[in-house]
Prior knowledge:
Blueprint: E1 3-8, H1 12-27, E2 38-45, H2 50-66, E3 71-76, H3 77-81, H4 83-87, E4 92-97, H5 104-113, H6 115-120, E5 136-138, E6 162-167, H7 178-182, E7 186-187, H8 190-202, E8 207-212, H9 228-238, E9 243-246, H10 256-265, E10 273-275, H11 283-289, H12 295-309, E11 314-321, H13 328-340, E12 345-350, H14 358-365, H15 370-393, E13 399-404, H16 409-413, E14 417-421, E15 426-429, E16 438-446, E17 452-455
Parallel strand pairs: 1-2, 2-3, 3-4, 4-5, 6-8, 8-9, 10-11, 11-12, 15-17
Antiparallel strand pairs: 6-7, 13-14, 13-16, 14-15, 16-17
Helix pairs in contact: 1-5, 9-10, 10-12, 13-15
Amino acid sequence: MAGFFVENFGCRAARADGEAVSSRLRAAGMDEVMLPDAGVVVINTCSVTAEADRDARAFVRKTRRLNPEAKIVVTGCYAQRAPEEIAALDGVSAVVGNSHKGLVPEIVEGLLRSADSLAERKLIAPANLLQSATAQVWADDRFAHSYIEDAQVLPGLQTRPNLKIQEGCGNRCTFCVIPTTRGGSRSLTREKVLAQVRGFVAAGGKELVISGINLGRWGRDLVPNHSLAGLVREIVTETDLARLRLSSIEPMDWTTAMIELMRDFSPNRIARHAHLPLQSGSDSVLRRMHRRYRPWHYEQKVGALVDAAGPEIAIGADVMVGFPGETEEEFRETYDLIARLPFSYLHLFPFSPRPGTQGWELHQAAPVAAQAVSERMAALRALAGTKSQRFKAGFVGRRLPAITLNTPAKTVAQGRTLAISDNYLPVEVNEGITSNELVDLLVMGINSAGVLVCERDAIAGNLPAAS
């Protein structure tokens, strides 16, 4: 049977979906190969912006160019939002929305064997197929097959993989299409999460990232209700996982109990890293976005995290520029808030109107001029660059805990190893080390790419620790 290739776009939770698909296909005895050699190519899409949609379409075209015989399966948020649009693209064999993403491995397996196999396995009914000249489509608004929870997360191509424990979102921010593309909030059970963590540790895993579309809401839909803070404490106290990393958590979900976990268990068991989506530092813009916090709430949460984990904690944020009606004064409020907070990195992106959202309508009424958006993006990029460089420079001559990554062959041949520190800094070690190793490193400097240049030192324990 021909092999498969999976290309992932978007957030950590989406990547976790793609990793689960790959894991399931490998478990079924299929070979994961490079794009030009694949019999089936799975494109796991994002649709948070128009640019994300364009990237997905471009990858379909690239696949057709490099591998015209491959069967193309498009899944993810774009596939859920506009399945007919994707089905019309040349070369696409199947479109699988998030509502049916759990069936992707079986659909891929069927395509690899033969189209007839799908009907035999009753994965689809002939009445639901489009005309034979177009792609087969699986997508609805029930999200009954949206989880891929039975694939054990393992260290492999990703030494620090993502375990998605929560799906969907009910916040209804005016700019966001996620409630449409992923449905309401749903949680993986506590028992399954703990079983996944123990299985990861048993397979030799050292660092695991837990992720979700709205991670802080984990457990609220379960009976009885559970909290993310309670789950994290159980993971740390009841399993042997060496290091847990938390993915993006909304500001209002950094509860006192969550922040206390950082005080109690970082840096040894919980990575000193917190990502709090900001979107805007202007109160009036946040209200138009229907965000559930105000700038002063956000500032308080960041201060509490720094107090709990220390000033070496990496604080990151998503920031949206050019939301409909954003004035120069409102942008300045965002700039000033970012300037005074200890961010180590920012994910910056311009507002992109998504069809079907309230933001789309707001954009029609009060668009922000493209030139103003460009200038504001440039100002924030410069500010973010300065903050990132200052944060990194503070670790030169100090020790940082890190985990080694799968390093490209070219870098290995040069006697170097890539790693990432517990506080989310890119690292290059001046010696060859196998992947998936927890190491203490001495930071010697910063190279032109902004990567920390490090070495292991036998007497690292005598050095001042960054903790």
